Amino acid sequence: MTDIEQKKIFAKNLLTLLEKNGKTQREVADSISVSPQTFNTWCQGIALPRMGKIQKLADYFNVDKTFLIDPEPLSEASDAPYYLNDETRQIAQEAFENPELRTLFHVARDIPPERLKAHIEFMKSLKAQEKDDPDEPC
């Protein structure tokens, strides 16, 4: 694949993610610490970001970086929202955009396995409580 083809694929996939997530170029550029001009060159297929910025974009949109560089259109699975409930989706997005809470989305990267298992068990117990009595606060 030529460099020009790769730039076009990346630009198309990036624009698709922007549209699907209702984000502007400036919003995302600010979030990943690049200038709006640089971000725009990516969207126009003029330049490709380095892999570190591709990873930041993937993290921002909560997708695998292959979604940005893959020549195939984004799969149908990516069309479906991760959160099924609109209110849950909005709360999760707000938490992700809050720098103090964003670490919740990355907790599994370097957490020891026993702590990760404890977190999972805690989440399961909350879910079980919800099924037993949805009106009872956790």
Automatic annotation (TrEMBL):
Residues 14-68 form the HTH cro/C1-type domain. Gene3D superfamilies: lambda repressor-like DNA-binding domains. Pfam families: HTH_3. This is Helix-turn-helix transcriptional regulator. InterPro entries: Cro/C1-type_HTH, Lambda_DNA-bd_dom_sf.
